Amino acid sequence: MKIKTQGALQREINRLKRQGQKIVFTNGCFDLLHYGHAKYLQDAKNKGDILVVAVNSDSSIRKIKGKNRPIVDERNRLKLLSALASVDYLTLFKEATPLEVIKKIKPDILIKGADWEKSKIIGSGFVESYGGKVITIKLVKGLSTTSLVKKIVNSR
Q: CA-based Rg of the chain, rounded to a whole angstrom?
């Protein structure tokens, strides 16, 4: 099963690391999954052997994006992401940032979209402190959940 609690994920990742697998980590809301998300996750997967995706909980998204989000609840977002071949493991986090998850699994590579400045990526200093890499991936221009929401609202 791809969806794991943080504790179960930590144990699984430790086992995979002992086997020499390169662990890639990313995170996000993934509300209204679109091609930009799919391409981003595939590009992230291509940087290593195992892709771990930490997904913001519903309460975490409300704190970040406001009371009308998420549009798709956490259970359904996790299930949809688990259907993607590029995603090996998923875990949910309720905090404002994924720092605690990053500290638990100590990924070899931390990835965010190129819209993030490397120095501002949550966990970048921690990952680099033990020799891990921080990479940004170019996003598909013009595709975002926010732009999709605006388009839907304006089409009514």
A: 15
1 inside domain: no
CATH classification at residue 53: 3.40.50.620
Domain assignment present for residue 48? The answer is yes
The string of DSSP letters for 5-29 reads: -HHHHHHHHHHHHHTTPPEEEEEE-
What is the 8-class DSSP label of residue 3? B
Position 79 in a domain: yes
Please identify which residue in the block is written with the tokens 């732009």: 147
Query: How many structural domains compose the chain?
Result: 1
Could you tell me the pTM of the whole model? 0.91
pLDDT of residue 155: 75
Give 5-56 pLDDT, tens digit per residue.
Answer: 999 999 999 999 999 999 999 999 998 888 889 999 999 999 999 999 999 9
- Residue 33 C-beta-side C-alpha neighbours within 13 Å: 17
Q: Give 51's Cβ-side CA count (13 Å radius).
A: 22
pLDDT tens, residue by residue, 117-149: 888 999 999 999 999 999 999 977 766 666 666
With respect to residue 126, please indicate whether it lies within any of the assigned structural domains: yes
List the domain range (segments joined by +) for residue 134: 6-154
